[in-house]
Design a protein that fits this description.
The complex is a heterodimer of chains A (304) and B (309). Chain A has 304 residues and is mostly helical. Chain A has 16 helices and two strands. Chain A folds into two domains: 2-54, no CATH class; 78-302, MetI-like fold, CATH 1.10.3720. In chain A, strand 1 (261-262) and strand 2 form a beta hairpin. The longest helix of chain A has 35 residues, at 85-119. Mean pLDDT of chain A is 85; it is low at 1-16. Chain B has helices at 2-18, 26-56, 70-76, 79-112, 115-125, 127-130, 133-143, 150-157, 169-197, 201-209, 214-242, 246-251, 263-273, 277-285, 287-308. Classes of the chains: A mainly alpha (304), B mainly alpha (309).
């Protein structure tokens, strides 16, 4: 179906053969806009529908009216949710986890990337490839053994690791550290060698080179990696679902899914409000730092 | 910082006194120390658990006895297992193909319009990728709701019969794939758009002069030039889609009657909810061969490109 739309969309260019090039291009342009609008409708429909539903009362959701329109808009869902202590706890847990994970990941991966891209030591090439391969290991392969290992640590030392929000600070680096290191290696490797050689001659130590030369020059890459890191730790669902269960230890995505859906009673107005609030932080960051976001996205797979 | 200062103070003195090369090159020592946190995190939290899950898969349910391949024997005899294999492969392959095609087409449309407006469109089209999948899947769940489905409302107003989106196994499978395509195709679009930008405009002009139509330009110019990115993106996405958890878990939770379970969700159901950790580990291990093949292909691809450059 999509190939068919592609054909229709660019047939305007076929006009090149018998009409003026300008007219053909203009038609191609109109078709491009037409199909872009269709795709934007498809891509934005769920978030828009989230927003529409979040403005409705339960009574209006239950009534058989047009689901795509709000007849009596109200902010009651937002007020209810934001005045709930439980929901604010989820928000706090999510924010704390994200901040800790981002700081730990960025320190670890900048140091490691500097060492792997510039300093080199025995086995550093192999390690860089290894980092890339571990980035490809998904969390759905790791959560069961990690769960068992944490239970084992509890038996051994008495430290309860399961069902605490802070345990996620140890888990998320499995996803963020390999990726951030990988893209930072790419950014650092693109910095000209003359820059750090000059610093070396001036008598700078390695830490000084890193702090004074590499970090300022690679700042766009660092911002991209930080955004990625934040998005991953904010959005992860599998680890918190497996490792935390008490209501006061949940992070936002799991909290919304498990506490707002009570048995068969779905309060959709509140669920959609919660989902929208949960999606807001990454969306706000994206709105302001879109170019960094996209740079990080394309760097992950193409820098090598 | 302190380390650097200490080094500056000590190095000349040591060199004049001994005049011999130190046992371990100081530079590589520092480099190793910088990389040590990474090595520890990867070794303790990724490599060790990965091997540990292979060990777990050979134990019995209470994890007291070694049963060899007993868990796998048990799985092979269960119908559900083969259904999960089938659904995982079907889900991943179909979703990746659709994502690649939609991404390719949309990237061309965005590339077609004037450069000034591209940023705006690209920004809107990437939103599904930015929203946490767990949150956007909730919106889809509500769109698919059996009694208040907003899709069915449109369908009935068009005079068509409503669709039992998540109630019927086939529609449920299609729904899970649809949501995955929705989440993933913006990523393909961005990657392919970046690749399209790197195709030199002269090639298109040369093709136009040779009388190529739009399709020939895409097929003989763009496609070969973008081949590398197309392959790498598809392989990356194959890994992520194959290991997908959030969407299936929230949308159908494996139902109706286990028809939409993929490896990750079934492993979760068996291992965490069913408390049979070894069995869950055995199920999740089946993701490994596909991941290994895809990872190997990506590495080869990146290495080849490194040689070309």
């Amino acid at each position: 179906m999509t190939t068919a739309t592609a054909q229709v969309g660019t047939t305007g260019r076929g006009a090149v053969r018998y009409g003026s090039i300008a007219r053909g291009q203009k038609r191609a342009l109109y078709w491009s806009y037409f199909f872009l609008i269709l795709f934007v409708i498809f891509f934005l429909m769920p978030p828009v529908y989230m927003f529409i539903t979040s403005l409705k009362t339960s009574a209006e959701i239950g009534a058989v009216t047009n689901p795509w329109w709000v007849y009596h808009p109200t902010l009651q869902n937002y007020v209810d949710l934001l005045s709930q202590a439980q929901f604010l706890t989820f928000f706090k847990n999510s924010a704390l986890v994200a901040v800790c994970v981002v700081s730990v990941t960025m320190v670890v991966s900048i140091l490691a990337a500097f060492s792997l891209a510039r300093m080199k030591f025995w086995g550093s090439g192999m390690l860089a490839t290894g980092v890339f391969l571990t980035y490809l290991i998904p969390e759905s392969l790791l959560f069961i053994p990690l769960f068992k290992i944490f239970a084992f640590i509890h038996d051994l030392t008495g430290i309860e690791l399961i069902n605490h929000w802070w345990v996620l600070i140890f888990l998320y680096p499995t996803l963020t550290v390999p990726f951030c290191t990988w893209i930072m290696i790419g950014y650092f490797a693109s910095i000209p060698k003359e820059l750090d050689e000059a610093a070396l001659i001036d008598g700078a130590g390695y830490l000084q080179i890193l702090m004074r030369v590499f970090i300022p020059v690679a700042l766009p890459g660092i911002i991209a990696a930080t955004i990625f890191c934040f998005t991953v730790s904010w959005a992860n669902f599998l680890y918190p679902l497996a490792f935390t269960t008490s209501a006061d230890q949940l992070v936002l995505p799991v909290g919304i899914v498990t506490t707002l859906i009570k048995g068969d009673v779905y309060n959709w107005g509140q669920i959609m409000t919660g989902a929208l609030l949960g999606a807001a932080p990454p969306l706000i960051i994206y709105a302001f730092l879109m170019d960094y976001y996209i740079a990080g996205l394309t760097a992950g797979a193409t820098k090598g | 910082m302190a380390d650097a200062i200490v080094r500056d103070l000590q190095m000349p003195a040591a060199r004049t006194r001994v005049g011999r090369r130190p046992l371990v090159n100081r530079k590589s020592m520092v480099a190793f120390l910088f990389a040590l946190p990474l090595i520890l995190i990867v070794a303790c939290l990724v490599i060790y658990p990965a091997f540990y899950s292979m060990h777990l898969a050979t134990l019995n349910k209470s994890m007291t006895k070694f049963v060899g391949l007993g868990n796998f024997e048990f799985l092979f005899k269960r119908n559900t297992f083969w259904m999960v294999v089938e659904q995982s492969v079907l889900f991943a392959v179909t979703a990746v193909v659709f994502k690649a095609v939609i991404g390719f087409v949309v990237a061309h449309f965005v590339h077609n319009i004037p450069l000034k407006g591209q940023r705006k469109w690209r920004g809107m089209l990437l939103i599904p990728w930015v929203i946490p999948p767990a949150m956007s899947t909730l919106a889809w769940l509500w769109l698919f709701d059996p009694s208040y489905s907003a899709f069915n409302w449109i369908l009935t107003h068009l005079g068509l019969a409503g669709i039992p989106w998540l109630g019927n196994p086939y529609w449920a499978r299609a729904g899970v794939i649809l949501v995955n395509v929705w989440v993933g195709s913006p990523f393909f679009m961005i990657m392919y758009l970046a690749a399209l930008k790197s195709v030199p405009e002269q090639l298109h002009e040369a093709a136009s002069i040779d009388g190529a139509n739009w399709f020939q330009k895409i097929w003989y110019v763009n496609l070969p030039m973008m081949r590398n990115i197309i392959q790498i993106t598809a392989l990356f996405s194959l890994i992520v889609t194959f290991a997908n958890f959030d969407i299936v878990k929230i949308l159908t939770n494996g139902g109706p009657v286990d028809q939409t379970h993929v490896f990750a969700t079934w492993a979760f159901t068996l291992g965490i909810w069913g408390n049979d950790i070894p069995l869950g580990a055995s199920v999740s291990l089946f993701m490994f061969p596909i991941l290994a093949v895809a990872a190997g292909l990506i590495l080869r691809n990146i290495r080849n490109r490194g040689n070309e450059a």
